[in-house]
Amino acid sequence: MLVLTRKKGESIQIGDDIEITIASIKGDQVKIGINAPKNVEIHRKEVWLDIQGENTAASAEVSDLFGILAKAKNKKV
After folding, report:
1. Fewer beta carbons within 10 Å, N or C terminal of the chain?
2. Contact (CB, 8 A) for 12 and 4
3. Are residues 34 and 52 in the same domain?
4. Farthest-apart Cα atoms in the chain, separation
5. 2 and 34 assigned to the same domain
6. Are residues 32 and 5 part of one domain?
7. Claim to verify: residue 28 and residue 60 sit in the same structural domain
8. Which of 55, 15, 17, 23 has its CA nearest to residue 39?
9. Contact call for residues 30 and 8 (beta carbons, < 8 A)
């Protein structure tokens, strides 16, 4: 992990398209601004983990559905 120190108003550049700027610092909270192309998804980590969990659950349900359909098809034959 790369660890950088920045002050309010300073930025970090990631590649050619992503810029992270320190907008404010209050106590133990840091507010950041992110400039990135619209095709780059940006989420807080806890939200991203929830999305991944929902996607995993949904794909498991689809797999179960395909299994049920395959069993039903085999019973018809």
Report:
1. N
2. yes
3. no
4. 70
5. yes
6. yes
7. no
8. 17
9. no
pLDDT tens, 19-51?
999 999 999 999 999 999 999 999 999 999 999
| Domain total in the chain | 2
Is the pLDDT at 65 greater than 70? The verdict is: no
Cα dihedral sign, 57-61-62-67: positive
On whether both 7 and 30 belong to a single domain, the answer is: yes
The answer to whether 24 and 10 are in contact (CB under 8 A) is no
SS (H, E, C) 22-55: EEEEECCEEEEEEECCCCCCCCCHHHHHHHHHHH
Report which residue type is found at 22: I
Q: Which domain holds residue 12?
A: 1-38
